[in-house]
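# step 3/5: fold
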Amino acid sequence: MSSAAPHVTGQDHFGPDHLWSVDEHLEDILATVRPLEPIELHLLDAQGCVLVEDITVPVSLPPFDNSSMDGYAVRVADVAGASEEFPAALEVVGDVAAGQAELLHVGPGQAARIMTGAPLPPGAETVVPVEWTDGGLGEGPVRGMPARSLGPEGATGHVQVYRPAEARAHVRAKGSDVRAGDRALEAGTVLGPPQIALLAAIGRGTVRVRPRPRVVVVSTGSELVQPDTELATGQIYDSNSFALTAAARDAGAIAYRVGAVADDAETLRSTIEDQLVRADLMVTTGGVSVGAYDVVKEALSHVGDEDEPGSGIDFRKLAMQPGKPQGFGSIGPDHTPLLALPGNPVSSYVSFELFVRPAIRTLMGLRDVHRPTIRATLTADKALTSPKGRRQFLRGTYADGKVTPVGGAGSHLVAALAHADALIAVPEDTVSVEPGTEVEVVLLGR
């Protein structure tokens, strides 16, 4: 659960008819949502989470000098001047395998057959790759060592070395990766596979992190049906809940999809209350406009007045297109943040990118919660138009410093959204953008 009860600051500053800007709405959300409390997790459970403490290396990597090749551990003087015409003949005193506890001692005129990763035995100064030797077979250079089970005699006898080796050749020095006392990872690091590998390599089985937030996505609308079922007259498939659940997972959350809820306020309220037990953040889609069947607004407008002081949902109009109607606040005894998004597919997805994704990343404790934003040159067949007083977000494709619109401005055009990898942001005071103009672009999927 979030560490502090959300407080809907906007309700204190603006009246019900206030037209919120995109920045005001986002600022209110980010001022309310707090990072989740840290917990101790096992390494694989911590994947995708953010470290809350610096990690110090307790033991050097590698923890001992070891061989980087399969070959022979020898003294430098014993192979000096070795060649194919005049090979150095050395007595093989045994094998040194990776993980071997008791090590052989390599004296003058001796060699130990050594495997990759095995510790350099006492007395040895360098490693000669097996390809520089006859492998103990007396038949000229070899390509590799036979398996010990197939040729155990290779661990004894003599070996001929055909090339000299410098001191410490093919030896990984103790601490050459990291040294004991070094900082392995710093607080704020997101744990991916390489970071988890490092933690395991230095002996850490658990780490203290902020957990991935649990996000519950609820779509509303009596017209919505599950994919893979037959459509009746007036019905459409529920795409929003799939899109937003996938987007929440892409943002780093553990996301749960709830099937579409019919346009009934009591059913919706009951569904949301049932889902609170597994939610750090609730997201609804649909039912936030001014229609007679906009049940999210009906169900949640008066939540939390007496029973849950400090909670409640504020429904707002934003100066943006698409996505004018929005809702934000908290619900339930733990004051779980809730964002209510519009129901049109494009409006819903754009709203998620602008408002929900930053909220999820804030819950995770990430330093940078926003998608990358760049400037790019608009390429289009004609000028783009935009409503005055609204910040418009158009779908586009970006490449090599240029961005091209995809599809129209309609908030129902989900096919165009599937081909977009960027949002073109047109400012509130701009009503037309000519081709060749530099525009602000939000990069998706990066």
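# step 4/5: annotate
Residues 345-364 form the longest helix (20 residues).
# step 5/5: archive (pending)
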